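Narrative progress, year one. The postdoctoral researcher (J.K.) led the effort to move from monomer predictions toward full complexes, under supervision of the PI. The following entry was the first complex the group processed end to end, covering 759 residues in total.
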Amino acid sequence: MSGESAAGTRQRCIAHVDMDAFYASVEQRDRPELRGLPVLVGGTGGRGVVAAASYEARRFGIRSAMPMTEARRRCRDAVCIQPRMSHYQAVSRTLFQVFREFTPEVEGLSLDEAFLDITGSLSLFGSATALAQRIKDRVREESGLAASVGIGPNKLVAKIASDLDKPDGLCILLGDDIRAALDPLPAGRIGGIGPRTVERLAGHGIHSVRDLRAAPESVLTRVFGRFARQMRQRAEGLDERPVCTHRPDQSISAEDTFEGDIADPAQLRGELGKLCDRVGQRLQRKNLRGAVVAVKLRRDDFSTFSRQRRVSPPLGEAAPMLRVTAELLDTWLAENPGARLRLLGVGVSELSPATQLSLFGQGTEGRDLDQTLASIRERFGDDAVARGRARPRD
Amino acid sequence: MKLTATREAFLDPLQAIIGVVERRQTMPILANVLITARKGTVRMTATDLEVEMVATGEIAADGDGEVTLPGRKLLDICKALNDGAKIVVDITGDKATVRAGRSRFTLATLPATEFPVVEDIHAQQAITLPQGALKRLLEKTQFSMAHQDVRYYLNGLLLEIEKGRLRAVATDGHRLALCDVSLNAAADGNHQVIVPRKGVLELQRLLHADEDLTLSLGTNHIRVEVGTIRFTSKLIDGRFPDYQRVIPKQEGKFISADREDLKHSLYRTAILSNEKYRGIRLDLAENALRIQAHNPEQEEAEEELEVSYDGQSMEVGFNVNYLMDALGALDGETVSVQISDPSSSCLIWDAGTEGCQYVVMPMRL
């Protein structure tokens, strides 16, 4: 359905729910002794980054994605915790169950963030405010956590609204309030405007959303090309993107930043093995296969490379994935002798459902092993078992 | 060396071999064709190191000699000249001059000694059969070959001589095509080779008339001689999967349907199947077949077809392209389709297409 015809129908109502400092809040919930303390969840090794910082920690200027060393320098007393991803995933499932009590149209953006199209459910709750409050209450009842809820006529406004009143926020932006709320915000708050674009806009004297809204056509066209019209609409608080209940995965990937830089090819291959295990398991859980396999490499000077190869037939198991990625890695290492890597990643894209049956076996070399590894890890933790090649050498 | 002939005498051998010349090469000399004159016979050779084609032309030479010339350029020049034009190619040093009427072209040559040729393939077996028979084998099976599969032995066609029959088998791991003919001449012993994809396609292009051809198999090469053309291809060094194991036995209940009707129903339904995965659903009941498809836009297609079937009712999914390929390769009026259950392979054949069998694995619904 095109935006034009949608405009003629009734006004949509979209909620954006965002958990406050999700990982850190989960830790504080589970360990009461941490409440009120600055808590950092993230890699605690030499070069880990902050995945989540409690609000107590944010007072020290700590933000997520900041290197852990920098965060600790800012706040010596911060409690640093290794993330427990599978635990957060379980909490996330509870949250999404709550979201679905309000509407079947839930679009998850991450473990702790979702859009809800509540156009149809609004009348059941009387008002947008009542509905938003109910979502917050139900989240707290089921998970003991605080959520910030923003409601607007579209995804753009809802997301900005949820951010305006954090933490534990509730913000409704409708009608004339939208322009008043959006105008003073920096242009970078509009989805699709990244740091690069912010810089280019600043070069044209465009800093706020108001500037963007009022900018001449020619400038917008120069910066955004064919997206100029769309960006001006965003600045006006207009956004026709629907809430997509099911967004098919574009790619599945995993990456790791090492404790210390690694130059030894054998050790790198070991790391590659672990990454392939992770990607393979996620592919198999979703019953997908991928036709393009890629490795991502970051040198100690932060220059980043990627190498990819198309495979036929598409693969979903760790063993063949490791074979392809190891070849890509070896080729790259041969071109860059002596390179020290700080990060390695494996990604699989051009995904398709694994529904076509095969004549000769199921083309699922190593799948039994993958599944055994997965079930051991599920019961005993991620480090309970590793492939021989992936083990550090003494 | 000086070569003289009409435009057509140059064009015929060039056009026969040019398909082998890749548009982009790893070695410059592979863009060239080798021209050899020996004892009054002029031959042209093209190769991509995997497939080699040699053609003899009705070209007069003023003595023995050999040279290589840029293949596609020479072909384009000959093509662009007037019908019946008389062409003279004069090779001196590292240049070749092509003259015809008032046109003159100077081409760069490369030394013939650097051109890789396959001489003796050490044939272990040679058979003679009609061109049409081999052409049919290839046409009925080649579409099932894999393409750039990591299982490299699937990127080609299995040719097998067994008990006086010549058989072609192709599979991409999802479907399989088999066709065989009996050989008139006694062929003793069994022999299995895998001809690479490109070789198969070139060979297919080459076969036309009903004259006989000679097919020889060496340990590393296959060679086919047809009239004035000699085709040689390297073989894929690998083990083809045990195809006999995956062909279901013709037993139990099967569907009989008008082949054209079924093909057209599938073709129409396919329009609204997922463009990438091509899944369709067959809904099988007594004497009735329903075919359904839908796409991500939630559009739907449904076809109903009268068939003859008294087996179990079931629903089974397929990649519609695989079914259409098989039905397109058959010639008969009535096709037989045997499906034992939704997760086992399906066998397709018809009484009017002797020696051909197609196997397709289902998709999970």
